[in-house]
Amino acid sequence: MKKKFQAILFSALCALLFFSCKNDLNVAPQNIIQDETVFSNESAITAYFASMYNDLPIEDFNFHSYAGFNTNSQSPLSDITDEAMNCLNDDRLDIGNGVSLGWWSYGPVRNVNIFLQKIGAAPFPEEKKNGWLGEAKFIRAYYYWGMVKRYGGVPLITDVQSFTGNNLEELKVPRNTEKEVYDFIAKELDEAIALLPETSDGTRANKYAAYALKSRAMLYAASEATYGSVQLNGLIGIPSSNSAAYWQAAYDAANKVITSGKYLLYNKDANKAVNYTNAFLDVTSTENIFVKKFQYPDKTHSYDLWVLPRNGVGPSIGYGSRVNPTLELVESYEYTDGTDGKLKLKDGAGNPIPYTNPTDVFLNKDPRLDATILLPFADWKGYKMDVRAGLIDNGKLITAGNYNDLYNNIHIIGLNGIGGGGEVSQTGFYVRKYLQPAYDKALVVNNSSFQQYIDLRYAEVLLNYAEAAIELGKTADAKVAINLIRDRAGIKALTDAEVTRDKVRHERQIELALEPHRYWDIRRWRLADKLLNNTRFTAIMPYRVLPGNTYQYNTKLVGNPKTFTPNMYYERIDPGEISKNPKLIQNPGY
């Protein structure tokens, strides 16, 4: 039996060594092997780290909002906010009921704990081991942040638990308070910062990735203390007396990244829309702090397949159009002169404004809009996004449910919607952010995309800094950070009087649109149950006017209502976990 085990271990270790030669973290990791042999071989340790990094709860292209990491729904977090909806009648009747984003992951925590326990005795120079210890602490802090933002307080397990046959009760650990978990994350990241190098290739943590993660985590803790309430004796919620300290911690951590001079907002192209587009595609971007790389064919995703229109610009195999941005999001983008972004659809008398060029309705909007959202009739690789909703002939409205339906030999609706049913946008808008124009549509199939995902970027750090600053009364600091972002975007700078909490939050919504921040932001600000209260969102309806070839725009509510109930500010702990460990207390409302 011993020889058989050794043979299995040798084979598995060889697989790890083979993997680690294939560009470190860019391909799918093998299962972790925790035998002592691993901790004496640097290539095996690299493979061990690949598995630990792969387990990070990064809400990337392969993360979906229904049933956590279930890839069947293909609804990113934006689909359960006011930002977007799924093309298939919003894909479901609710936004998860507080049970859809579960990430109770003590297996990954155990792997880090084992590494921290064993690496001290490994035969490597102390400097090298210290760097690895810093990475492991960064990873463990990230794991606990992934859990605390969902559940509030969770059990803090920092040693390797082992079952000896008669110690089962000792292994049943109660929940720590939410404050204790956030304080542990801060301490863990401080220790990581002291150990980590200043630079890395972006796929592995360095000192400033740890500072950036700390600024994000402390922002969440501060929000809970400021806008939440303490329940279950502190298992959820943080006393308001701690809010200033957490805002300051977020401010200080962000400031460390800013003053380091290691990162800059991406600014390579004079065309602001092109520049913002490329900020997400240029792997050499000065803005990227921590990224998740993909490499075809070993480690891929299906982002382009799932968000491109099925017809015209995307593949014809189906699955497309799964993220339809709302008119509400589009109108959140200001005009470049800083005025409100509401589209000019009607004149002063309430009559529809005719547009000879239908894209003129979006003229002079914040350039980030065009770089984030594929607008009606916008160009994508030489193709005009045909989202016509119907025709108007001498005042008569003509609609259809199928692209093949004709009126006087004219297609009534566009190839890409609206009203065609199925896999076309139900709002008139598609996603542009992160799309890779270099891909041939014929090659865009399941698991064929490999653009990197940016988890921590400099713009978010500036936004974290601005939000913490405004909450601390440091308005001048908030203004500097926000105007750096607005200048890069190409829109008017804010004056002193305009720098308010609402403006800072608004800038965060725009800069981070359709990235996985909005859902967590409206949760931590305790706005979700107000914004999503039996709420439906709006589509833009472009009509071609006959005779002639002008366009006018109407609007209508689409999709199922979205409702976020107050209990959903914390996820439900899986009842199966509670049955195994009765010391766990369920969150309220479940």
Folded structure, characterized:
The protein contains 18 helices and 14 strands. With 590 residues, it is α+β, with helices and mostly antiparallel strands. The protein has a domain of 235 residues. The strands form 6 sheets. It has a 4-stranded mixed β-sheet, with no helix packed on it. Helix 3 runs antiparallel to helix 4 and helix 4 runs parallel beside helix 7. The N terminus is likely disordered.
Can you give the mean pLDDT? 90
Give the number of DSSP strands: 14
Uncertain residue segments: 1-23, 67-72
Helix percent band: 25-40%
Q: Specify Rg, calculated over alpha carbons.
A: 25 Å
Portion of residues in beta strands equals 5-15%
If helices are DSSP runs of H or I spanning 4 or more residues, what is the number of helices?
A: 18
Shape: globular
Secondary-structure-based class equals alpha+beta
Largest sheet: 4 strands, mixed
Strand order of the largest sheet: 8-7-13-14
Distance between the termini: 47 Å
Q: What oligomeric state do these chains adopt?
A: single chain
Features:
single chain, 590 residues, alpha+beta
Compile the SSE list and pairings.
Blueprint: H1 2-20, H2 42-54, E1 84-85, H3 106-118, H4 126-151, H5 168-171, H6 178-195, H7 207-227, H8 243-260, H9 272-279, E2 288-292, H10 303-307, E3 324-325, H11 327-332, H12 367-372, E4 373-374, E5 379-380, E6 383-384, E7 390-393, E8 396-398, E9 406-407, E10 410-411, E11 430-431, E12 453-457, H13 458-471, H14 475-489, H15 501-511, H16 518-524, H17 528-531, E13 535-546, E14 550-562, H18 575-580
Parallel strand pairs: 7-13
Antiparallel strand pairs: 1-3, 2-12, 4-11, 5-6, 7-8, 9-10, 13-14
Helix pairs in contact: 1-2, 3-4, 4-6, 4-7, 6-7, 7-8, 7-13, 8-13, 13-14, 13-15
